[in-house]
Write a structure and sequence with these properties.
With 171 residues, this protein is α+β, with helices and mostly antiparallel strands. The protein has 6 helices and 9 strands; from the N terminus they run αβαβααβββββββαα. Strands 1, 2, 4, 5, 6, 7 and 8 form a 7-stranded antiparallel beta sheet that branches. β4 and β5 form a beta hairpin. The longest helix is centred in the first third of the chain and has 9 residues. It is globular. The mean pLDDT is 92.
């Protein structure tokens, strides 16, 4: 992520490649599963004990007057108590994740067929790209805990954040 102010929906490519090793060190998981092979989603769901699923669609038309406010809220740095699992059915966007300990942003461009698992406790944010549309399958183990915890001094010591840091072996 280039950290240049401006439209969050633009690529913001820093030109600095991020290795698979660095992505793996954050706990982020990614697969590309073509939409004509969605049975593989069931396999991943079974392996990881995901029992619940629904579909979310984010568009200007669908959200109406709430669109800009929702997009802004998704883009505020936050964490969740559960993994955030998304399989992209249509559209595209970006997830930015905080690399630790450098605290730099890593921008992950996602599109149709991408399955992304963002670990509980990692600071991140989401935005659509210039296509202004995404449709995703959301998966969860139990009742979803998707309430965002905005980053502040209390989230730095939140048990989920502490467990995340222990899990990636960072002190």
């Amino acid at each position: 992520f280039d950290n240049i102010p401006g439209d969050q929906r633009l690529l913001h490519d820093s030109g600095i490649p991020v290795s698979d090793e660095i992505l793996k060190s954050t706990g982020l998981l990614h697969w590309h599963i073509p939409t004509n092979q969605q049975n593989q989603i069931d396999t991943v769901a079974k392996e990881r004990s995901y029992r619940n699923r629904d579909i979310i669609t984010i568009t200007k038309d669908g959200l109406g007057d709430l669109y800009e406010a929702k997009l802004k809220s998704y883009y505020e740095e936050h964490m969740h108590e559960d993994e955030e699992i998304r399989y992209i059915l249509e559209g595209s966007g970006f997830w930015d994740i905080r690399e630790h300990p450098s605290n730099s942003w890593i921008r992950c461009q996602i599109g149709v067929g991408d399955l992304l698992i963002i670990p509980a406790g990692i600071y991140h944010r989401f935005t659509l790209d210039e296509n202004d549309m995404i449709k995703a399958l959301r998966l969860s183990k139990d009742e979803p805990k998707w309430a965002p915890f905005k980053r502040d001094s209390s989230t730095d010591v939140h048990p989920t954040r502490v467990d995340y840091l222990k899990g990636i072996a960072v002190n």
